[in-house]
Every structure is written in structure tokens, then in C-alpha cells.
Amino acid sequence: MDDPRSVLSIGDLNFVVSKLERNDFPEDRWNELGLKLHISQPKLNTVKANNPLDVKGCLRRCLVLWLQQSYDVDKYGLPTMQLLATVVEEMGLGAVAIKIGKIEGPEGPLLQISDLEYVFVTLNEVSFPPTQWIPLGLALGLDHQTLEAIKANDYRNIHQYLRECLSWWLQRFDDVDAKEKPKMTTLCDALERIGQKAVADYIRLKALDQKLASPIQAVDDEASSPGFGSHFLKEGIYKEIQERSYEINESNIMLKEELDAAKKKIAELEEKLDTAEKELYYTAEKANIILREGLDAAKKEIAELEEKLNTAEK
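^ that's the sequence the OP posted. Answer follows.
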């Protein structure tokens, strides 16, 4: 299902269910989803009655009704992944909507404050330097005064300033809407404007699941974040990943060889230790025999002397 605008049928049920499950759609909100998809409440009540205490089953049956077009198709449109993503976004699940394939031309779905953790984690995963939170805030449309107010907070962790900045952006303060409404593409554009092109391209690849908007070019080290930078060559991120994978595989092979050699060395040392213990045992046993023989001879000599002494006394 390459195009989210393609019309879905009942044959796509497993695909749709899997798409929602893999992207963490909360199954217990199936009834809300059904209503958003314009399935009537009586039909949803029947679904619930037929699947008591089974939210997963309820979600599946709800999607069956939708894919079978058990609603006013002429009024609300045919079932597509784009329509599903729009509904999921309306439920306040913008991050899920992004993942299941909503498109609005090249822009992507609108983000909300409920998507704060998703956006924050995404930036951390692609190694965006949190020290750049002020330039990012300005590029996203926040005012200097707003950023100064955030800066005035006595946060011990620099990441907290970044989180607060993103929170204000997602709540659309200041001139955010004048720049562009909060979307992942908006974030990527802002990152490029502050010299974080490698980060922006990687988010497009990772979070938006798009082909890169432009070829990856060498990025000046001063303008790039840790973990990115000039090693992103024109061949693109895929080549970088392949090279890293090759290096890791080579490293794993070397480590395995070293581990095997170490195990062999340990086996040899254990064998030598076993031999030494046996030799020590035999040596000790031999010494014990000699000592016992000496002791027996001494006892015999004492007995003879005692006998002579008794004879002399008599």
C-alpha cells in the first residue's frame, strides 16, 4: 500500500490492523475511532456485545465495518489510509498519524501538544545538539522574549530547555503559525535553516519515512551535530549505513576470532593446571610414604630400645 490515498477494501484488513498495531494505536479507543469513521453507535454496540472484554477483537470488527463501507461513503469518502490517518490525528494522536501514512501534499499531519514526547525523542535519537534549542526556537517562530522566559528557568538538564521550547512550539505561541504550523516537515525546514541539514535529512528518513528531499552533501563540522557532519557524503545515508554495517560485521568477526583464541588459551592453561595438580599430588603422596616409612622405622627402633632397657633393669 504505497499510496495512502489508495482506496482500501476488506482484503486490506490485516494490513490496516497491522499498521495500527505496529504504530502503537491504543486499541481501547476503538469505539472513538469507529465514531470518527462515521460508523453508527448501534453498530459499534453490536461489535462490543459480540466481543466482550476483547478490545483487540472490537478494533478489528470496527475496521471490518469501515472497510465494508458501512457508513455514508458519499458524504464521508471512501476508506483510505489517508482518511484513517486524518481521523487518528483528530483523536489527538498525531505521532501515530504520521507513522500510518497520512499525507497532506508534502506537508504531513499537524502536530499537537500530545506529540511532545514523540518530537522530543525523535530529536534525541538523531543526535540533535540540545544546546541549539534557542536558534531552533527562533526558526520555529517563537519570540526572543518567550525563549528568554524559558532560559530563566533553573533547569539542571539542558534537554529540559529543549523540551520546553518544543512545548511552546506545539502550543503554537507567538509567530509559530506565521512561519508554518507545527509539523515534522516544518521542524525539518527549521533545522536546515540553523545549519542542521544532516539532522533534518535523517528525520525525513527516520520519522517521515520519505526519500530524502535532496541529496545528502558534506556538512561543515561546525554546523553539524555530534554523530553527523562531514562523514555524510553525497552517496547518502544508505551508503553510510551499509559501510557502518560492514565495519560492525568485520569487527564482530575479529572479536569472535579473539574470543576463540582466548578460549583455546584457557583450555591449554586448564590442562597445564590439571597436570601440575596431578604432579603435585604424586609428589605429596611420595613424600607421605617416605615420612610414614621413617616414622615406622623410628617406632621400631624405640621399641627395641625399650626392650633392651627392660632387660637391663631385670
